[in-house]
Amino acid sequence: MNSNRLLRLTAAVCALCLLPLTNAHAWAGEALPQVKRTTGERSIAAADPAHSGGVAQEAADPFEKRRELYEWMGAATHIPWYRLAAIDQYERTITKARPKSRGQLGQWIGIYMTDTEWAGTLNPNNVDELPATIRWFNGLGKDGDGDGLAKRTSDADLLYAVASHMMQFGPSDEDFAIALWQFYHNTRAVQRVGQFAKIYETYGKLDLEGHAFPVPIGSHYSYRGTWGTKRSWGGYRIHEGTDIFADHGLPVRSTTYGIVETKGWNPYGGWRIGVRDLNNIYHYYAHLSGYDKSVQVGTVVKPGQTLGWVGSSGYGKPGTSGKFPPHLHYGVYRDRGLIEWSFDPYPLLHRWEKEEARRLRKKK
């Protein structure tokens, strides 16, 4: 018998010795508790709704299926659905930003864990699906649907693996932040998940994909693609956005559902405001002449909501204005988990402009 095989056998025997003799299926003691609750005329049972013929399979779109999974898990763990949704969405955005190193594991759930994280760092079987041995090696994998296996590709198991960690902490926002820190060890991740949770809680739904053009359609404005062109003020750099030239005082609107992350003076951008959306994209609005009084850091906003007004502030100390014609500088940045990188907003702006113009024509 080779050493690896002996190590696997020893680990399995040791782990099984920990199980109560009165319950042969006790390794599923980590499985989700049996739950049944009623939603309208339907019931959600303990089995994974994404694979059991439950409500989620009947749902018409991915948002409904994911919502059913969050609510089902929340009913069993007492973790609000919007917190589970926020974690799942953050994971989904990081996978999108790092497609070469991460992939979609579940059918609907976007949570990602490496095989080593799932099975346990010292587990000789990195594709282990036995909850007992995974627990023995301090792996994160859990059996969420009660089938006796902890599958890294199961929506229920992935979601329960995260939920079981969160259950070790209290229900307050501060407790949630501590739980996120212990899970990610990344302050940026803690902030993002907290922001996403607040957006979901505010609107009470997942489908928040609508957009608006940053200035009113039909007003006088002009723009073209200038992302990546040279800039010299303050040292050599490139232009990380698109300039929309418009009349001074024209409303500047949120292009997305999101949360205000930054607000105030920037030597380059003047009076600026930044909004984080659920795709983990930071929307940057610069050179404003002022802000709407209802908008503060932490305010949840929606497409078309006024954030401020077009101006010509910037390129100097606070209050500097008039060094260039009035315009809105609009930039977008994608979060990769540790850093953010700028990308060209022009294609998005062009699409949102066309879509909003089409909606307005339909209303007439």
TrEMBL record:
GO MF annotations, alphabetized: hydrolase activity
Signal peptide: 1-26
Classification via InterPro entries: Cell_wall_metabolism_enzyme, Dup_hybrid_motif, Lysozyme-like_dom_sf, M23ase_b-sheet_dom
Domain (M23ase beta-sheet core) ranges: 238-335
EC annotation from Swiss-Prot or TrEMBL: 3.4.24.-
Major enzyme class: hydrolase
Pfam families assigned to the protein according to its UniProt record, in alphabetical order: Peptidase_M23 (PF01551)
UniProt keyword annotation of Transcription regulation present: no
Keyword entries, A-Z: Hydrolase, Signal
Protein name per its UniProtKB record: M23 family metallopeptidase
Source organism per UniProt: Paenibacillus aurantiacus
